[in-house]
Amino acid sequence: MDNKYDAVIVGGGVLGTFHAYHALELGLKVCLVDKDAYPRGATTQNFGQVVPSGMDSKWQKFGMESLKIYKEIQSQFDISIRQNGTVYLASNEEEEQLLMELRAINNGNDYISKMLTKQECLANYPGLRKEYVTAGLFFPDEVTVEPRTMIHKLQKYLMDQKGLDIRFDFPVVSCESKEEWVSIQSTTGDAICGKKVIVCNGAEFKNLYPELFATSDLEVSKLQMMQTKPQKNYELKGSILTGWSIRRYEAFHECPSFAGIKEKEPKNSLQKKWGVHILFKQAADGSVILGDSHQYADAHRVEDLGYDLDMDIDNFMIDEARKIIDLPTYQIQNRWYGMYSQCRNSDIFQKTIDHNIHIVTGIGGKGMTGSAGFAKKNITTIFNKQKIKL
């Protein structure tokens, strides 16, 4: 019985880990397996912002639920959550109009936000250039995380306090239904069984079901980000999202003025070519994370994106960031890129095989914000909302 579980979750990123969390909350016996020695994929390579404000109405609800879950866990165990809010900074009248329209939408959704004047923005965010900003929209309930440490702390919490079994270095090579059980085998010949198996990792999905993977509408996005050296005697609170974010994030697509504003944008700019929108977030060590860019390829042609950093993109982002905030230093100590999968025609990829094998992947850039809330709904659906007594 040691190798038999109610739920086996394949993939130790934020989406898989929160599926494990909610399965444990139902009183289930849960095992989380990951192909690597520790989590190191998109969950550890993203910006570390939890911003329901940027999501469309459906995913904003998942994001709001995620905020509650993050804060509840943080109250019991430090997983690096900091509630310091998110601000969107408008640089012209069009972007300011979108902010006012988004605030009206959020008022209807009972999601708190506050318009900031130019003077309030300048007072709240040191170094912000007065020639850039015209107004801001602030979301006080939103949080930041340290992505390179959060997932490790979350998994430690689940192991130590919730009884989660985690098996690293467990690349899954087969997943087969056998009567009421699903047998999962690793490359080393280790085997475990689960009543339900949830595959939350794109690599395992590709290896286990290559034909289904090839016919999916999954694509991969490559994002470049940077980290400055620690800023001396400087504090930048929360997530700072700027005008290009306002023109990009899904939440603004629901604003009445959005389509007309987008239509007037230049079609051949470097910002469009590289999918850049400028974000700032100060990390716990005082450094500032800058980014990011977006380049896309079919999921089965990820090599088309290359495996190097494009310095032209990085230099472009630094030049644009300097026009927005005058940081004490723009010396860069670290550069990296992240890869995440998303769907072209839907918000997430879901497929059930043999009743008890559930593939859930392609959450895209919504992962850090939406996974906790989405996984709660998905787990209760998979297990028919039956709460198991301990």
UniProtKB/TrEMBL annotation:
Name listed for the protein in its UniProt record: TIGR03364 family FAD-dependent oxidoreductase
Cofactor(s) annotated in UniProt: FAD
InterPro entries per UniProt: FAD-dep_OxRdtase, FAD-dependent_OxRdtase_HpnW, FAD/NAD-bd_sf
Assigned GO CC terms: cytoplasm
A Pfam family of this chain: DAO
Record's keyword annotation contains Flavoprotein: yes
Domain FAD dependent oxidoreductase: 6-376
Family: Belongs to the DadA oxidoreductase family.
GO MF annotation list: oxidoreductase activity
Record's keyword terms, sorted: Flavoprotein, Oxidoreductase
Keyword Transferase attached: no
Domain of life the protein comes from: Bacteria
NCBIfam families according to UniProt: HpnW_proposed
Organism: Flagellimonas chongwuensis
Lineage: Bacteria, Pseudomonadati, Bacteroidota, Flavobacteriia, Flavobacteriales
